[in-house]
Amino acid sequence: MTETIQNSVISVLIENESGALARVVGLFSGRGYNIESLTVALVDAERSLSRITVLTSGTSQVIEQIKAQLKRLIPVHAVCDLMEEGPYVGRELALVKVVSRGESRTEGLRIADSFRARPVDTTATSFVFELTGSPAKIDAFIELMRPLGLAEVSRTGIAAIGRGPSVFHVNEEHV
Amino acid sequence: MTAAAERDATTGNEALNGAEVLLRVLDEQGVEVVFGYPGGAVLPIYDALFKQDRIRHILVRHEQAAVHAAEAYARSTGKVGVVLVTSGPGATNAVTGLVDALMDSIPLVCLTGQVPTKLIGNDAFQEADTTGITRPATKHNYLVRTPGALAQTVREAFEVARSGRPGPVLVDLPKDITVGQAPLTAPAMSRLKRFRHQGGPDAEAIARTVQAMKTAKRPLFYTGGGIINSGPEASELLRRLARKTGFPVTSTLMGLGAFPSPDPQFLGMLGMHGSVEANMATHGCDLLIALGARFDDRVTGRVDAFSPNSFKVHADIDPSQIGKIIRVDVRLEGDVRDTLQALLDAWDDTPAPDLSTWWNQIASWRSVDGFGFTQDMTPSAVIRPQHAIRRLYEMAMETGRDTFVSTEVGQHQMWAAQHFQFAEPNRWLTSGGLGTMGYGLPAAVGAQVAHPDALVIDIAGEASTLMNIQELGTIAQYRLPVKIFILNNQYMGMVRQWQELLHGSRYSQSYSEALPDFVKLAEAFQATGMRATCVGELDDVIRRMLEHDGPVIADICVAENENCYPMIPSGAAHNQMLLGPDQDSAAAGLTEEGMMLV
Question: What is its EC number (chain B) (predicted)?
Fold first, then answer.
């Protein structure tokens, strides 16, 4: 009875208070849940709400537990499973440093162009490319850069939002 | 009363410091007793305590004991238990108690001192990252950073502790906040409305449950600590529902007392050391209704073999518990009291179904008498621990007094659960989830403080009780007439039992070397010590213990090698119970073939 492991993108609206992120991260580590990536930033200054997007994986029972456990945290206002709710857009930003000369350098620039990666820093021997897209696209870009002088990578993890007019928000009565 | 008389120059309100504001809010929350231990960072609070007489402070001898005492106070009264300890080691010593309360859903507010805000992060004397350390040890915690936030934070801490699934909440109080002036702000609207279950139990889920109840041939109620937490009314509703339906009832360790143990409809505790009839009925039922229980691994045994053929209903106030371990057919989110009321309303005047075949099967399992034992009654015979607890129970009942029992953790705890009977909720105080040795003695302190006229007994093992034995000092100071009933087998009995059964009888470090003389130990703490070394002395010791109006340690020397049965080995199914050396499990019908008879 082995169950399939699925990916899940979970968005959390959480009070922007000291220790709030630690509660979420501690929940994942303490209960042995995966974090593939996690992003967090203030999204509603007026109501002091941050949005956390977690890319995680597990059996359907584990994903259900993750959501239920998140909802128990006192600063958490709302939890949304974007994959379950319908189509969504997930985007990640990466900064990729490539150090190379000659043939590799021009080849790197050509590939970057086809990925719509923008050089945001250029020297005679290096580029820093800025690239946004799905994690898979960024993975593919990095693999192509590897033989061409790939030196350093910084990725944000995905930010995600549901497609269409429906909105993930907190219940106004409860704020 | 100098401070209280002063007025704030600008507002004209009473000028209070943070410590005084704290005590005002505790009083407003109905707090009568605080269990604590002073230290540098909480001196302002102790100074404020000194100047008032509404809140009583019980001085324990170790911060862990303060938390266990507050747990028992809470468990035996239904109120929130309150703890007050200092920063650094005061807070870290409290951590075991906090996790214990978290696992067993006990409402607590733990107030910890902290170094002044300016020093936080500087490795100051007695500084610890208390909110960091206790984040996974509490339901929620707070660090009060501004005087203006103090009153409302403490109020919210009480609300979090007692609402929904109860639990421990910690409030960390930097010394500058308690020393400096703080406003006694008016109670603000709760920001926790989203945690309240709206609109009562789901009508469709209730209807599906009652439909299943009407057609079930082999139904079973499996009740847990949630019924105790919900309050005495929930226990009363459970009794009414059981009467109306005629269904059998089993309980977890934490739920004992919600349904009267002596009742013929009660099958006893289920799980690793549960009764034969409870475990076989759980395995064989066709409808399992879990009420305020969480399918702990000590209850389920092997999860994929747990109650394999039943329709499962799970009622719990904490949605995250439903479907966590066992997939269920019906979810009933909400306070179990409301769920029980809704089930009673929907059942209405339906006559109790004919369950005679099921009850006959249960009777045959019951006849195995898995808790049975034979006590040699020759006066010089060795006392068997089960016999000691049975006699303690019988003689305690003869006193007619309201009786509270706490336990430590291990064999004696399981024997107490098996052989001591509880007719009412809130009388049984034990560490279930965390299994904290050293719980029972401070728990007895908390229960006796809450119920000064009641009979409070700590059923203990000689190893566990030594883990918080310093509380004999607390017992002496407040003249608490606690009875410490030690089943002394000179072993960490449950460790010894597992070593015998699973580790080739290699008794690694489980012998209690160099035990104190418990009679002399009692005397050293102004208590009365007694000892029974053979069965002929047992009744007399119990009688004298119960008659004595002060604290007693009764050192009951029991058989060293007794094992606790029945036992479901870890990872085994409920129909694979070990019944003990004298009984053949197959002969008792505890096999799949036996199950076919159901």
Answer: 2.2.1.6
Weakest mean pLDDT among A24-38, A116-130, B188-202, B302-316: B188-202
For chain A, which residues lie within 8 Å of any Cβ of chain B, measuring from their own Cβ?
A: 1, 18-19, 22-23, 26, 30, 61, 64-65, 68-69, 71-74, 77, 171, 173-175
Same domain, A82 and A93: no
Q: How many CB pairs under 8 A join A and B?
A: 38
3.40.50.970, 3.30.450.20, 3.40.50.2300, 3.30.70.2730: CATH of B2-195: 3.40.50.970
Q: Is the alpha carbon torsion for B482, B485, B491, B494 positive or negative?
A: negative
Average pLDDT, chain B: 94
By the 8 A CB rule, do B563 and B356 touch? no
Q: Grade residue A15 by pLDDT with cuts at 50, 70 and 90.
A: very high
With 70 as the cut, is the pLDDT of residue B591 above it?
no
Distance from CA of B538 to the nearest CA of A (A): 47
User: Which candidate from A18, A19, A173 shows the least CB-CB separation from B193?
Assistant: A173
What contacts B548, CB < 8 A, 6 or more positions away?
A: B481, B528
Give the CATH architecture of domain B385-557.
3-Layer(aba) Sandwich (3.40)
Confidence of residue B597 (pLDDT cuts 50, 70, 90): very low
Active-site hit among B63, B156, B277, B408:
B63
Task: Average the pLDDT over A149-153 and give the result.
Answer: 98
Contact B94, B128 (CB under 8 A): no
For residues B449 and B97, give the distance between their C-alpha atoms in angstroms, rounded to a whole number.
Answer: 18
What is the ipTM, given to two decimal places? 0.91
Alpha carbon distances (Å) from B81 to B63, B74, B156, B447, B508? 14, 5, 15, 11, 38
Look at domain B206-366 and name its CATH class: alpha beta
Query: Is residue B500 annotated as part of the catalytic site, yes or no?
Result: no
* Structural domain total, chain A: 2
Q: Do both A98 and A151 map to the same domain? A: yes
Residue-level pLDDT at B586: 52
Both A107 and A151 in one domain: the answer is yes
Query: Inter-chain contact A69–B320, Cβ cutoff 8 Å?
Result: yes
Are B327 and A64 an interchain contact pair (Cβ–Cβ within 8 Å)?
A: no
Distance from CA of B530 to the nearest CA of A (A): 46
Q: Which three-class secondary structure state does DSSP give residue B227?
A: helix
Report whether pLDDT(B189) > 90.
no
Is residue B551 within 8 Å of residue B475, measured between CB atoms?
A: yes
Do A11 and A82 share a domain, yes or no? yes
In-domain check, residue A51:
yes
